[in-house]
Amino acid sequence: MRKRTPFLIFWPQYFDAKRTRSEGRRLPENLAIEKVTIKDLAIAAKSLGYQIQIESSLKYPKSWWEESGRVLINTKGKKKSKVLKEIAKEIRKTRGKS
Fold it and tell me: All domains of the chain, ordered by start, with CATH?
């Protein structure tokens, strides 16, 4: 098993506005975004200055039939919830939905 100590896992489902909290969304509805891909996550994280790794062939456990992939982000010791909100705001900014 590969060691991923400084990295935290971020699935696109965490940001998906069409999902409920029990289906995997981790953001409040006002910050959630529709149709988020791992590419969106990677671009937003890189523009915020985080180091990333993309694992595109993996499936989110709660929706194992969808091949969504995930992004590993070195959060530099920040809390995951804070980084989730930063990335959501950055995706909105890059899509032009401030």
Answer: 7-78 (3.30.56.30)
